[in-house]
Amino acid sequence: MLGSAPLRNEIFAGNRAVGRIAFTVAAGLGGSRRGRVHEAGSLRVRFPNGNSKAALEAVIVNTGGGMTGGDRFDIDIKVGAGARLTVTTAAAEKIYRSLGPDTDIGVKLDVDPGGALAWLPQETIVFDQARLRRSIDIELARDAKLLLAEAAVFGRSAMGETVVQGHFFDRWRLRVDGALVFAETLRLDGDIAQRLAQRAVTGGGVAVASVIKYPGDDGDAAAVRAMQDRFAGEVGISAWNGLAVARLVATDGAALRRGLVAVLTALDAVPLPRLWLN
């Protein structure tokens, strides 16, 4: 029967977006160059400055224009010894309402000795009743460098949109020479608006971000704290175990973006992607 549950499930699965990109970057005499590149489904990657002697820039493009329940994206990036790479996205990723299944995103980042990676995607915008499950796993050599920034905005305030219910699960693991140096899991489930309103969570802020710099130290923390008058929201930073971690909370996405730009500028690790400045 057309309305049978197995057939409905098959039709639903057939209409879900599945995307994967995997690529390598190697150091050369003229700078960093892309190596093997694999693209599948609705994910693409472009290299707009492939002839530059600076860090290679990769721009991830979701041709589907957003994600919803049942969609699955996987990203696998390998930065070779001595290579430098900056990764961003062509636009903010949108996570739309789900009727039940999770939206799944899996990110694996691997940086060899002397390599440097800046993972700087634009914001993830979460819509009401969205269900997102994301994991970010990072493997660094001892003398590799990492700058990572991830931002999430719950609802587009400028358009009068709010997030009341949903599921947001975010798992990060960072290892250096195989040893776990940073691990966290954030879970917001059910009444997200109520949880965000709690002082111990965001105090009513709907835009949050985390920044990790490795190696990072007290000098990085001091540089960020010296810019407190430029932050529209709340910003805190700590340094320990060879890395610096900053947290940002703001009332909307625009304020969060301004704070992120200020923090990344203070950390002085890499030039910001051109798409961030448009």
Summarize the topology.
Layout (H helix, E strand, L loop, with lengths): L4 H10 L3 E11 L2 E11 L1 E4 L9 E7 L9 E8 L4 E6 L3 E3 L7 E9 L4 E4 L4 E3 L4 E10 L4 E10 L10 E12 L2 E13 H6 L9 E8 L3 H8 L8 E7 L2 E8 L2 H15 L11
Parallel strand pairs: 1-5, 4-6, 5-8, 6-9, 7-10, 8-11, 9-12, 10-12, 11-13
Antiparallel strand pairs: 1-2, 3-4, 12-15, 13-14, 15-17, 16-17
Helix pairs in contact: 3-4
Low-pLDDT parts are none
**Average pLDDT, all residues:** 90
**Helical segment tally?**
4
Radius of gyration: 19 Å
Name the shape in a single word. Answer: globular
What would you say this structure looks like, in words?
With 278 residues, the protein is mainly beta. It has one domain (5-277). The chain has four helices and 17 strands. A hairpin with a 2-residue loop joins strand 1 (18-28) and strand 2 (31-41).
Keywords:
single chain; about 280 residues; mainly beta; 10-stranded mixed sheet; 7-stranded mixed sheet; 4 helices; about 15% helix
Summed up, what is this model?
With 278 residues, the chain is mainly beta.
